[in-house]
Design brief:
Layout lengths: L2 H11 L2 E6 L1 H10 L5 H13 L1 E8 L10 H18 L4 E3 L3 H9 L3 E8 L9 H9 L1 E5 L27 H13 L2 E3 L5 H10 L5 E2 L16 H9 L3 E4 L3 H4 L8 H15 L4 E3 L8 H4 L2 H5 L13 H11 L4 H19 L3
Parallel strand pairs: 1-2, 2-4, 3-4, 4-5, 5-6, 7-8, 8-9
Helix pairs in contact: 1-14, 2-4, 11-14
The protein binds zinc ion.
């Protein structure tokens, strides 16, 4: 069979999980502009064409709303998703456990999981975590690339500051809550001190939903080989990030093959059971690439995948590089599903 055809078939047959998309931020933005059925209108076709079945949507609060408005913005974002669920009931499903995910896939709905990208909405109030749990949040990234009451994030830019911190007492309480309830901890964006603190403080599979290898692109936002090995040892998964500045040290000769380089590196280091996709596509969420942070960066970031249908081309490169159908099935989604099944117990 021709490679292209084979890749397309694998994309259609396999469950594809994207472990990171800032969907809620865009739902909130577009609904604030008076749009409705945003997912149905703007996202569904792309998900279907690419064959993406499951997406982890972050709750992310911009700097300008932190700390005072973080809770309100987060609740607004969740509210927007709930409004979309009402408007498009046959199309998307908010999943709170593994059974929900399986059912959504069977019913050919897009399965959405909710994640904190930074626990700023909690401020320093653990009671609020119970509320967000009830609302459906099942993954916790302790930080975005900044500091909060729980931990300290890895930075994109070097700013003048004192020493970085690790997991605080509040952060440790969040980890205990997560372990107790069956919530998954996401290590993307945490700084190195916090990374190793979490490894010590939390038992169970850990993921880095949207991070790449420092060996191939040495930035604090990516993972060292020791970190990749540590995640694999928990049974966890690393989701490969498709943002240009995270994927490669320069824009020369950057492309889908750059992502396959990361996939290959992780697979060779710890096995194909510990790598997946966390594309972090931002093009639709134009405000991200137009943020004050993006303007301060030397390189203007962009998405290496134009949209989800580029997954077909990505798989084509993987087949050409010798990944077996079984490996591709794992990397497309089975690896993340394995972790979700293990952690989301209720
Ligand atoms: Zn992120």
């Amino acid at each position: 069979m021709e490679l292209k055809q084979q890749a397309k078939q694998l994309a259609a047959e396999n469950i594809i999980v994207d472990a990171h998309l800032d969907l809620l931020k865009d739902l909130h933005y577009q609904r604030s502009q008076g749009q409705n059925k945003v997912f149905e209108t703007d996202y569904l076709e792309d998900f279907k064409r690419g064959g993406v079945n499951v997406v982890v949507s972050s709750i992310f609060v911009d700097d300008e709303y932190v700390p005072d408005m973080a809770l309100r913005v987060a609740l607004d974002q969740v509210s927007c998703l709930y409004q979309e669920l009402e408007e498009s009931p046959g199309i998307i499903a908010l999943c709170k456990n593994f059974k929900d995910i399986k059912m959504a896939i069977e019913q050919e709905k897009v399965a959405i999981l909710l994640s904190f990208e930074g626990v700023e909405p909690l401020l320093n109030d653990l009671h609020l975590l119970q509320i967000f749990y009830e609302l459906g949040v099942r993954l916790i990234g302790m930080t975005w690339s900044r500091q909060n009451y729980a931990a300290d994030g890895s930075r994109f830019l070097v700013e003048k500051r004192g020493r970085e911190g690790g997991i605080t007492e509040f952060g440790a309480k969040i980890l205990d809550f997560a372990a107790n309830k069956g919530m998954l901890i996401d290590l993307s964006h945490i700084n190195d001190t916090g990374f190793w603190d979490i490894l010590n403080l939390y038992q169970g599979p850990l993921i880095a939903s949207h991070s790449n290898s420092r060996k191939l692109n040495d930035i604090p936002r990516n993972l060292s080989d020791d970190m990749i090995k540590a995640i694999a040892k928990t049974g966890g998964v690393i989701g490969i990030n498709a943002i240009s500045i995270v994927a490669a040290p320069s824009d020369d000769n950057i492309g889908l093959h750059s992502l396959v380089d990361h996939i290959e590196h992780v697979a060779q280091l710890v096995g194909p059971e510990h790598v997946g996709f966390g594309f972090d596509l931002c093009k639709k969420i134009s405000a991200i690439y137009d943020s004050p942070l993006a303007h301060k960066m030397e390189r203007k970031p962009f998405d290496i995948l134009d949209d989800y249908s580029d997954i077909h081309d990505l798989l084509e490169i993987m087949i050409a590089r010798g990944f077996s159908d079984e490996d591709i099935k794992k990397i497309c989604g089975a690896n993340f599903l394995r972790v979700f099944e293990k952690v989301f117990r209720r």
